[in-house]
Design brief:
This protein has 385 residues and is an alpha/beta fold. The protein has 2 domains: 198 residues, Rossmann fold (3-Layer(aba) Sandwich), CATH 3.40.50.2300; 143 residues, Response regulator (Rossmann fold, 3-Layer(aba) Sandwich). It has 13 helices and 12 strands. A hairpin with a 2-residue loop joins strand 11 and strand 12.
């Protein structure tokens, strides 16, 4: 992996130096990725997709003849490392950045605004869509808060018991984990859902017996999970071992295809709020295109939904770069304008996507899937809060 990154950086540097020497054939952008840190299980395929797509664009003429110089590095989910990397990227005069986590993206947001560098992140924290507070941040999917709202609305509408449904919240004590919690509680109160328990689960938890027993004592009939794959697998396996009948709802990072192998039969019945189409949705033009690009660089390897997430973010940025270049303003404010004033059809990789000058929400609709007979099956169409 380090060798691949080194090669990518060398090629990007060569393109950038060419631009500095007067050959305006390079568009420098940055990548801040978690490949080896605690969210690397989902971060690595995300980063791979972005490198693959940028390579594909460059091999097909770039953007109006200009090649993209991608300076991407692994920051291992450490906020100080992300800040240091951001500084190095600004020294390379990147025009935009493909970023990662909530804690680091929120920490960088004021610098991003100051430097006027559009930043499409894998953090879908609702606060990052607030144009007044984070004018150059663009979350790359349905926000975590909207995901939680959709799950809670689904629970409420399908509940057949007496009184209000009782829901627990399971999340890690990071910016990512905490992001949707207050909004979920406010929305639950509004629609008549009782939040009866909060439990902190580490990102790489190997045992959550105490948290699950506490949840059971509080009578939780449902639980929302804001985690990544390893913690979700532990939650599901421990719940099955303890005989807990709570129905679990995974927000987007808490589930993917690999979870089915890790959790096995314990994943049966799990619900999943996924803003993205899956590798197996080959009826979609966008998925067939993702297959084509991936095959060029990874052979016939099947990819997880996290690869598709990374692909969407890179694809969206490239379309904005193209628009900004065609309009003669290939700079931070020009790219921001392009993101805010265009639609970004992606062949069904997600719900129809577009930002606006007043709100940087990529989309507000997603599908809910459920694990049935060991496979993810959509149980809704695209729905919103």
């Amino acid at each position: 992996m380090r060798k691949i990154l080194s090669i990518s950086l060398f090629l990007a540097s060569a393109l950038f130096i060419s631009a500095l020497n007067g050959n305006a054939a390079s568009i420098p952008i940055g990548g801040i990725w978690d490949i080896t840190g605690p969210t690397g299980d989902v971060g690595a395929p995300y980063a791979t997709a972005q490198r693959n797509y940028i390579s594909y664009v460059n091999s097909h003429g770039g953007i109006n003849g200009k090649k993209i110089a991608l300076f991407g590095e692994d920051y291992a989910y450490k906020i100080p490392a992300a800040v240091a990397l951001y500084k190095r990227l600004t020294e390379k005069h990147v025009l935009a950045i493909l970023g990662w986590g909530t804690g680091d993206t929120e920490a960088l947001s004021r610098f991003i605004a100051r430097d006027k560098i559009p930043y499409i992140s894998a953090s879908y924290s609702e606060g990052l869509s607030n144009v007044k507070k984070a004018p150059y941040n663009f979350p790359g999917a349905v926000t975590y808060s909207d995901q939680a709202r959709i799950a809670l609305a689904f629970i409420k509408s399908h509940y057949k018991g007496s009184g209000n449904p009782k829901v627990a919240l399971l999340y890690n004590d990071k910016g990512f984990g905490r992001s949707p919690i207050n909004d979920a509680k406010k929305y639950a109160k509004k629609i008549g859902v009782n939040i009866v328990d909060d439990e902190i689960v580490p990102l790489r938890a190997l045992d959550v017996t105490s948290q699950l027993l506490s949840m059971k004592r509080h009578g939780a009939q449902y639980a929302l999970i804001q985690e990544t794959i390893m913690a979700t697998s532990t939650i599901l396996k421990d719940a099955k071992k303890l005989g807990i009948k709570t129905k679990f709802f995974a927000l987007n990072w808490a589930a993917n295809e690999k979870l089915l192998a890790l959790a096995g039969s314990a994943a049966e019945g799990l619900y999943w709020t996924s803003p993205f189409s899956l590798w197996t949705d080959t009826n979609l033009k966008g998925i067939r295109f993702v297959h084509k690009v991936s095959k060029l660089y990874n052979g016939n390897k099947a990819q997880s939904v996290n690869y598709i997430q990374g692909f969407i973010a890179a694809y969206t940025l490239v379309q904005a770069l193209k628009k900004a270049d065609e309009e003669g303003r290939l700079n931070g404010p020009g790219i921001k304008y392009a993101l805010e004033h265009n639609k970004f059809p992606n062949g069904g990789l997600s719900a129809p996507a577009s930002y606006s000058p007043k709100l940087h929400k990529f989309a507000t609709k997603l599908r809910i899937y459920q694990v049935q007979n060991g496979k993810f099956v959509p149980v809704t169409g695209y729905i919103s809060p």
